[in-house]
Write a structure and sequence with these properties.
By secondary structure, this protein is an alpha+beta fold. Among the domains are: 167 residues, no CATH class; 155 residues, no CATH class. The chain has 24 helices and 19 strands. Strands 4, 5, 8, 9, 10 and 11 form a 6-stranded antiparallel beta sheet that branches. The chain has a 3-stranded antiparallel beta sheet with strand order 3-2-12. It has a two-stranded antiparallel ribbon with strand order 1-19.
Length: 820
Amino acid sequence: MYNNENKKAGGFPDPLSSREQKESKSFGLQYAKAIENQWGKTNDSGSSYKKRNNIFERNRDYANGTQDTNIYKQLLTSLDPNNVDGSLVNLDYTPVPILPKFARIVSNKILSREPYPNLEAVDPISSSEKNKEKIRLKTQVQVKKELAALKAETGGLVLDKDPDNLPDTLEEAEIFLNTNVKTDAEIAAQIGTNMTLQWAGFNDNIFRRCVNDLVSCGMAVVKRSNDPNYGIKPNYVDPASFIHSFTEDPNFEDVVYAGHIKSISIQELKRLAGDTLQEKDFEKLATKAARNKSQSTHNFSSSSYDQTLGKKKYGYDDYMIDILDFEFISVDCMHFEEKENRHGNRNFFYEGFSYKEKSNKGVFERIPHKMEITTIYGGMYIMGTDYILNYGMKTNIPRNKHDISKARMSYSVVATNMRRMIPKSMIDSCVGFADMLQITHLKLQQAIAKAKPDGLIIDIEGLENVQLGKGGELQPLELHDIYEQTGVFYYRSKNPEGGFQNPPVREINNSIRNVNELIGLYNHYLRMIRDATGVNEVMDASSPKGESLVGVREQAIAAGNNAIYDITNSSMILFKKVCEDVVKCLQIIPAESVLMKVYQNAIGEENMKVLSSFSDLPMYNFGVSVQKEMEDNERAYLEQNIQMAISQKEIDLEDAIAVRNLKDVNQAERLLVVRRKKRIERAQEQAAQNSQMQSQQAQQATQAASQARQQEMQMEAQIEAQKLQLKSQLEIEVARAKHEFDKEIETIRASATLGFKTEDQEFKEKLEVLKEDRKDSRVKKQASQQSKLLSQRQGKRGELQEEMNLMADAPEITENILEQ
């Protein structure tokens, strides 16, 4: 890279220069000019930069279906317009969007399985901590029953982890260890990395654009910035504007310098330059930009004062100039000095990068030591000029503290099929086939345009002098008019020699010429594109369902995945590189910076304290692995197994949810097998418990029935005894009551008998007296009545009513007396 003779010719400066020389602007300017000379000017068609830029832009046009159609016009028509027949003037030259379809299929297939970083600390301290955690978890799994019993005895007190949340078996614990067991530093790094990528919109914007670049250009570039004030941010870089040192490594691990060219306005340049450049410098740059980029100069000399900004604006502020944002790797020596003190102890002291060994070593021995470390220098170079901005050694460089001698540039670059500094992309492999397919499509249009309608072939000899009686003769044109108007055709079936001849009018069916050959050719080039890209009919889901067997379709999908594996692998390597840069930048954020406070508010102060507290802990060395979500066919197959297991009641709904939450299909299948075995064992234990419980219940039921019968017999005996006792008591009471009743009856009867006898005698006596009295009375009354009757008969007196009434009432009085 270095040659003393070509310094003035634009060679690279001496890489063994001192650090003071490397930090000088002259060193950076010489390095930037060497890069410019190696790649050439941006507007030079013969430069390496322009050649690769043209290839990338052409591939992007084909991938977007907007390629230049002049090549098709030149192939289908003559270069001389006067010799053209004009048959191709009205053709539709719009490109057939075949390549865009295949580009989208590949890009969407890669992006459909969204990647996510899995960070694991691989340094010895973290590994030992994680191994201790794994051993502790396995021990807890083995004594899970004892922990559960202890939790029950202590009333829910949990010492370390809740035994209800622990795996049941060591096999399940292995899956749990691979997915969920992380140290505090790993958790903090995982959260911080995901948060940084989310803030930058990496998955939604930058990574999508990078995958599209890998498909169309074969290269993808991301630049990381980690300013303490503006944050850690991955930025998209157009690979067409990216330049780098010579390499054949598709991962660009051995590049010495890298940068990208961008066009900015002079107004933006003023903001970046600050006080470094004066207005006369900007005027020179504007003059050069107007000459090189053919910009309008009508407002070059105009100027005005902006009241809002408080400064003068010039007409050339909108002119665009090219800026090379570059950086390169260099090696500097850090010097240390080993000293022996008066107590005989040896200490190491840092002496900086510029160290000169002392000639007078003094009383105690001084031993110099040095360590070569990688440093990054960079700045912004205004191309084609002698101006360089913001040049110097880069700060906040992410390093691996376990190997601080190494450093990486801020560019993360991957490519596919790198050859002679130009990657070979999938679209680039299909450009020729796409051109031939487009030409075939235009030929089809030409054949359709030149196609003739159906017509008639007329034999004039058979239609001459057709006799129609008195009407005379009809000529062929007249017969044709009659045929067109009536559909009736008149002709002679015999020729002049008397023989029969063919019908003089026959139809001509004019088909499109070569249409089948052109369609076959179109399908041929379409198959060639499929073979070149690897995207078959099964992969793009264009084949009908049921057309092929399941095994054949799986083989076709596997063949397509193999064909695009280089693109998929490159995209995952790029994602891994970005995550590695981010997690290293997280560990070197200054404690008092604004960015540290932002992350503390976002992911927690304790997490950031664990991640970046280097005064007490060494820097963690994180190994980043990129994991992807399951593909649709893997997810469908897993879901089919889950549904089958659920239908056979081999797993519970909670197990199905746990399996679906895993993103790796292998871990999901392992967890499904473990949960299925666990569910079957639990079902068997439950069945045994149910059988034992049923036998116990049957035994208890038998005992209960026997006890019930005994109790029933005892109750019956008691009831019988009570009945007998009650019966005897009742009989005694009845006899006693009967005796009392009889006694009372006899007493009453005796009293009644005695009283009746006395009353009867008295009554009889009274009755006899009454009878006698009544007899006398009746005698008297009869005598009186008789006398009255005699007197009345004789007419001496009237009837006495009172006496009659007394006579009439005599029987009632007698009855009353008898009753008494």
